[in-house]
Amino acid sequence: MEGDWQDRAFHHHIATLIDALDGPDFWTRLTRVIERFVAFDNWVALVFVRDRAPLVCAESPTPDGAVDLLFRAYLDGMYQLDPFYINACERPRAGLVTLAEVAPDNFRITDYYQRYFKSNIIGDEVQFNLPFEIGRTLIFSLGARRHYAERDIAQFALFAPWVVALMRQRLAYESLAQSAIDSALAGRDATPEQEALSEAGFASRFEAVTQQSGRTPLTAREIEVVRLSLSGFSTRAIAERLDISFETVRAHKKHIYAKLGVSSQSELFALFYEPMGAVGSIGSIGHAGG
């Protein structure tokens, strides 16, 4: 049976993508094919690295060509609260991943959501994931100002096999030795302390900040409670995840607040994620990736 012109055009675009696998515009061409079927507003290709800042493969340009400060704040450390990053590190799998699948129960009331995700992506996000070695996942993220409809998600799922297959072939042409710090701090001066915090894993970051501020260090379990809490897990969800009682989680939170001299989630977020820059003052629309 002869396909219609749309089918022919689609196959032609796939062919051009295969031809572009080793070229600098591969990711841009990939977005152009997908946006013919589903509208989105920003995109980014990253490598998630366990306990390290993501590596940037390619990113959508800002409308005015300026440095996207909000995306830089993400690379500086807020990626640690990104539900997609957490999921890729804890449960790596190839294929389509949606925000609805990975977002914790309290995600939309977190400071991370209100001060980064809502300003940067606004509505929704999906990612095509490809784990390729222990602790590393190549991701292609598409963010939208609106919520993706059921039909959009179905279209992404239909595309996932060939998108992931092309990502697997693309890996050979990515320069993954690039330091994420160079990307994150491009265009602004950074102190050695800022660079160290950007590259630090979650526990290392917390230890460094508490040492600098002269506060009482947190235990490993307390750090895990903070990470889950700031990521959007409710007290009950944290208890289930860590296999401890609801009251034990509440006790941990009480000790954490007392040790750090804070009285709210917002103060806790500010303590660990605002030393890198004035996150709260950033409001540009930028890239997906969290």
UniProtKB/TrEMBL annotation:
**GO BP terms in the entry:** regulation of DNA-templated transcription
**Keyword Signal included in the entry's annotation:** no
Residues covered by the HTH luxR-type domain: 211-276
What InterPro entries has UniProt attached to this entry?
Sig_transdc_resp-reg_C-effctor (IPR016032), Tscrpt_reg_LuxR_C (IPR000792), WH-like_DNA-bd_sf (IPR036388)
GO MF terms here are:
DNA binding
Q: Name one Pfam family in it.
A: GerE
Q: List the SMART domains hit by this protein, alphabetically.
A: HTH_LUXR
Q: Which UniProt keywords apply?
A: DNA-binding, Transcription, Transcription regulation
Identification of the protein by name: Helix-turn-helix transcriptional regulator
Native source species: Paraburkholderia acidisoli
